[in-house]
From TrEMBL:
<keyword id="KW-0472">Membrane</keyword>
<dbReference type="Pfam" id="PF00957">
    <property type="entry name" value="Synaptobrevin"/>
</dbReference>
<dbReference type="InterPro" id="IPR001388">
    <property type="entry name" value="Synaptobrevin-like"/>
</dbReference>
<dbReference type="InterPro" id="IPR010908">
    <property type="entry name" value="Longin_dom"/>
</dbReference>
<keyword id="KW-0175">Coiled coil</keyword>
<keyword id="KW-0636">Prenylation</keyword>
<keyword id="KW-0564">Palmitate</keyword>
<keyword id="KW-0449">Lipoprotein</keyword>
<feature type="domain" description="V-SNARE coiled-coil homology">
    <location>
        <begin position="147"/>
        <end position="207"/>
    </location>
</feature>
<dbReference type="Pfam" id="PF13774">
    <property type="entry name" value="Longin"/>
</dbReference>
<dbReference type="InterPro" id="IPR042855">
    <property type="entry name" value="V_SNARE_CC"/>
</dbReference>
<protein>
    <recommendedName>
        <fullName>Synaptobrevin homolog YKT6</fullName>
    </recommendedName>
</protein>
<comment type="similarity">
    <text>Belongs to the synaptobrevin family.</text>
</comment>
<feature type="domain" description="Longin">
    <location>
        <begin position="7"/>
        <end position="137"/>
    </location>
</feature>
<dbReference type="InterPro" id="IPR011012">
    <property type="entry name" value="Longin-like_dom_sf"/>
</dbReference>
<keyword id="KW-0488">Methylation</keyword>
């Protein structure tokens, strides 16, 4: 079981014309890519960021979502138009633990920063949450979250969680390959890595 990334994101509003949208911004994040080979980590890290921002932009406010892409799973909670928390894990990571964690992060971040501060942020880590670095370590072992899980069981049982693949989340005329090609956040090396890995059916295989 692996927790790869925790990210707090200010998604753009896709309902607005493109020229009027505020750029999607990862406000704060922590990652653990130690399970990948050294030479893969740069490209894998960029794709996890791309995956997180793509699902954050398409998540509905108040809707808990689980989105899969190959062996990666994004657990998503968009609590407001301009605030979304995403935990990216492997397929084996317990969904209830991930949901509890992103709920906890959402509450902590909301208590520390106002919506106006989120709207005004212009760069990553401008609104940092120190506890992210602790969570990315502590929650590598889901058993550490036992107490939180017990408290959340009843609540989680009453919540509807939407499960989707990244392809089904995209709009009818959108294609993941096209989004990759158009992305300014992916380097040419990462785009080439994606295409090569896709051809061999081994994108982001853990080494």
């Amino acid at each position: 079981m692996k927790l790869y990334q925790l990210a707090i994101i200010r998604p753009c509003d896709l309902d607005l014309p493109e020229q009027s949208r505020q750029k999607t911004l990862i406000l704060a994040s922590q990652s653990d890519l130690s399970s990948y080979s050294f030479f893969q980590r740069g490209s894998v890290g960029e794709f996890i960021n791309f995956f997180s921002t793509t699902v954050a932009e398409r998540a509905k406010v108040g809707q808990a979502m689980v989105v899969t892409q190959n062996e990666h799973v994004a657990h998503v909670l968009r609590s407001a138009k301009s605030l979304c928390v995403v935990a990216v894990t492997d397929l084996e990571y317990p969904p209830m633990v991930a949901r509890s964690l992103i709920g906890k992060i959402t509450n902590e971040f909301g208590q520390k920063f106002s919506s106006q501060m989120v709207d005004d942020a212009s760069s990553k880590d401008e609104l940092s949450l120190d506890s992210l670095s602790d969570y990315i370590v502590k929650y590598q072992d889901p058993k550490q979250a036992d107490n939180i899980m017990k408290m959340q069981v009843e609540l989680d049982q009453t919540k509807a969680v939407m499960h989707q693949t990244i392809e089904s989340l995209l709009e009818r005329n959108e294609k993941l390959d096209s989004l990759v090609d158009k992305s300014n956040d992916l380097s040419m090396q990462s785009k080439a890595f994606y295409k090569t890995a896709k051809q061999t059916n081994s994108c982001c295989i853990v080494m």
